[in-house]
Amino acid sequence: MGDGEMVVMNSTTRQLVQMQYGEDSFDGTCRYEEALAYYEEDLSISKEALGDRHPDVATTLNNIAGVYDDQGRYEEALAYYEEALSIRKEALGDRHPDVATTLNNIAGVYKAQGRYEEALAYYEEDLSISKEALGDWHPSVATTLNNIATVYAHKGRYEEALAYYEEALSIRKEALGDRHPHVADTLNNMRLARERMMHASTKRKSPLRKLACLWGK
Predict the structure, then answer these.
(1) Predicted TM-score of the model (pTM)
(2) InterPro entries recorded for this chain (predicted)?
(3) Structural domain of residue 196, as residue ranges?
């Protein structure tokens, strides 16, 4: 997963996984298959105790999707994220922050696959809900703006990327303070976007310079 939702599960399951695999089980060093086994058991119990369409079931589905996402098993991740999204919309309403979070996660998978237009569509819906539910200056809004900017940067649309990064930076400074790590991350993203924009501009000009030299001869 990217800048989106942290893995969340019921506390008993989390304690079991951490006892078995350590505190960093979900920080990229996890033994994924064992983690999935615990999540699947969590899912089975939650469905039996709470019903198939309960928000806690959606949380576990989201967590399973996150493991597949981390493994690069994107189609499986999307299937679980979509099921979580369906339940959250039904149980919580279309404009709930948890719906926005799931949209963000789905967009992250599309971004990882290079499916940038689909990623942007999900991020924009996430942004709309987050602004409505949390306010324009919430850190989650900044996270989505940052993610949108990253997609534009991947597409080589650096001016648009920088505009979104600037907005994310402004919110993060306001909400988190000038010295927060997320502020530093956004500044670094902006630096990289500017460097790539300059590099792309140089590459475009290079053939014209060669042609000018030829004509000069």
Answers:
(1) 0.82
(2) TPR-like_helical_dom_sf, TPR_rpt
(3) 116-205
